[in-house]
Amino acid sequence: MNRTAIRIKHAATGLAVVALTWLASPAQAAYPDKPIRLVVPFPAGTAADISARRIAEGMTKVLKQSIVVENRGGAGGAVGSEYVAKAAPDGYTLLAGTLNTHAMNSALYKHLPYDPIRDFEPITRITTFPNVLVVPTSLKVNTLPELLALAKQRGAAHSLTYGSGGVGTTAHLSAVLLAQTAGVTLQHIPYQGTSLAMTDVLAGRVDMIFGNIPVVLPFVKSGKLKALTITSEARSQQMPDVPTVAEVGMKNAEISVWIALFAPKNTPPAIVDTLSKAALKALDSPELKKGYEQDGGEVQKDDTPAAFAAVLKSDVERWGKVVRESGATIE
Fold it and tell me: What is the pTM of this model?
């Protein structure tokens, strides 16, 4: 082949590459060009579900493309999380993951079908919910120090009891963390759902429970329950008279239950970045902020996916330690 033929061949190859690049550009720039599924690994009506629907509505306005919420509950969030972990990494299947699914389940479940770090691309947290420790009025304590003093007085033989919606829930592990921090023994009474646990707390058959603000606030206002502390770093606007755990000397017992957006591992960085920026813009909406406050939480966002990845790694380590020390496991 002579030099002229070689030059012509190279030029043709270059033109082909340019043409392919030009053809590919509109598809890349068009993301998203079809509806996005946001999988909630819990039933409809849960905090994760309500929060996901709020952010989906906000991001739909930003992206000018529908985000459809799909509930896939089961196994403490493991069913829906596994589904998204195995989905195509194209930005059209996302997960509304939680502190449970990504920081607690890996230590709780002996055979978790996904890895919370290796199988996902973290995007950003969207909201956090603190837990409030409440006791029935029949329990003659009015502060957390009084409660802990009573727990030490009772000892392991006649320990105070606490209810939860099941092993591995944040209500369960909030109490575990408190007991570990304070050095007291508390007996766990798991129920098939928070409402059943709350019924026995209200009746005085169980001594305490950690619950979300919307669940406990009506009972506190009516005088049926007493709120002793809240697990957030700052006091809640909805319950301003309730001290934080740090204020009563239990800083290590802080816990805010976050809900966050994840994509399957190997989703292109440009798509993850697009989703991150859309979420952050939606979370700046006063309407969305007000909605999360009405739900008993607050907006919680991470400036970059890398920032959230660091938070996630820290929480996996922290809660893994809490769970292992508690001895709690789920088959």
Answer: 0.82
Which of 214, 252, 208 shows the shortest CA–CA distance to 236? 214
**35-129+257-326: which CATH architecture?**
3-Layer(aba) Sandwich (3.40)
Question: Which tokens sit at 171?
Answer: 């209500």
Q: What CATH superfamily classification does 130-253 receive? A: Periplasmic binding protein-like II (3.40.190.10)
Token output for 89: 């990494």
Name the segment(s) of the chain with CATH classification 3.40.190.150: 35-129+257-326
Question: pLDDT for 145-181, tens place per residue?
Answer: 999 999 999 988 889 999 998 888 889 999 999 999 9
End-to-end CA distance of the chain: 69
**Contact status, residue 220 vs residue 239, Cβ threshold 8 Å:** yes
What residues pair up with 56 in beta bridges, in sequence order? none
Closest to 280 in 3D by CA, of 293, 298, 297, 299: 299
- 3-class state of residue 158 by DSSP: coil
Confidence of residue 15 (pLDDT cuts 50, 70, 90): very low
